[in-house]
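Researcher: I'd like a structural prediction for the single chain below. Treat it as a standalone chain; there are no partners to consider.
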Amino acid sequence: MKTDIQIAQETVMEPIGKVAARLGITDDELELYGKYKAKFTDELMDRVKEGPDGKLILVTAINPTPAGEGKTTVTVGLGEAFGKLGEKAVIALREPSLGPCFGIKGGAAGGGYAQVVPMEDLNLHFTGDFHAITSANNLLAALLDNSIQQGNPLDIDTNQVVWKRCEDMNDRALRNVVIGLGAKADGVVREDHFCITVASEVMAILCLAEDMEDLKKRLARIIVAYNHAGEPVTAEDLHAVGAMAALLKDAIRPNLIQTIEHTPAIVHGGPFANIAHGCNSVRATKTALKLADYVVTEAGFGADLGAEKFLDIKCRLAGLKPDAIVLVATVRALKYNGGVARTDLGNENLEALEKGIVNLEKHIENLQKYQVPIVVTLNRFVSDTEAELAFVKKFCEDRGCSFALAEVWEKGGEGGIELAKKVIETIETKPSAYRPLYPDELSIKEKIETVAKEIYGADGVDFSAAALKAIQKIEALGMREFPVCMAKTQYSLSDDQTKLGRPTGFRVNIREVYVSAGAGFVVALAGAIMTMPGLPKTPAANAIDVVDGKIVGLF
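Model: Treating it as a single chain, here is the predicted structure.
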């Protein structure tokens, strides 16, 4: 059996101008990055701004397991299937982070015959957006420490510096560091921290900004520290906004590549859904809606994280309204939730399937609260039996959801036609009445409690004293109406990754709360979640190499 990277490397790609032409884009409206990658020009985005919108389809999934779900694979395959049906479609994805590529999760290009290409470029440096975001983030950090060194004119309290440096790599040793050691000219000694680039507020701002003017306004609002009077010090106070914007001038423009079947793919931005808001950029999504009749996008990890943030943060802040939601599961993952060992997942086990399907059930119930029609799809594996497939189909239809199988890994767009037809039928017969889970007027504490109880199924929330104090300060600064961005393990509905299925009788522990004033949301850290991941005992990097001029081992 061919690996994903072998399939990708054997693909005969079309020149990106030819792919763009399917969306009515001219060569003059692209900035080329070689033959197969391009960025949209501002002229293109201005030209299409006033046109009608296509239909917006969100792809999400159950909680991830070692058995695999294939959310990105289904997203890509569904876009290819629309193409097979003669529909004008585009997919809108996030850019992968180097951390997972060299860690444990791998890349984010899809799989099998439902991939975006060039796969190696996308999973590695791509068009340099992450480098630009990292540089802008760290420029702000350098300006902050320089201001402290140069007489501290803003009276910054070095014990209340909240801005972290970042890099796009899993490096646990940088979570907590001491900087400024050495001679007096080497800076002021203080504790500092790193997060991974995808967790940087600069990433969130780039993904939520409507244009360059909006980007600069958001950058200006970033709170980097507090002074000795307890007042916020911002990026604007440090005169950092113009230089940060210069570094982000190209990165703010969406990227265009293609799937294996040449379906256009707009790929832009890359926040993780467990520690950030987990959606591709607003600019990419809104431009896609002007260019195509159907836009298929995804939100990271399980629906309790990515979909919740897509619906409660991105849609709320950007004025988007999804027309349908595709919820991805696999028989294998459901049996894993039912207690089956990974080595035994290929055996039929209806008892375990019935036990584990409660995870899918909870995600269905959660998504129905947003009043957007749902299509459940099973990403089919060879080992799935007819009895298992029939059980899941009936389970979903009994709960008011449409259902379709997806065989896109093996068959590409052809294997997604049943799903594409079901999505079209659902959109045409079940109008969306999207609404967010909670109103702006709730307090920050109430919003966190609403997500924990309504989405995770918690009995309640326990806040640390530091978290409560932070909430009080954030609300005093006039940011009570911000939505909340929950940072939580992706592996469980709870904040304990060992609790599979549909856990009950638990409480969510919020240990830290901080505001991303430029992005426009409040972050709440639950349980032991970290904003700088670590590498596993055997990193994926160990198997990656270049042989005869080709990259191998990347997945």
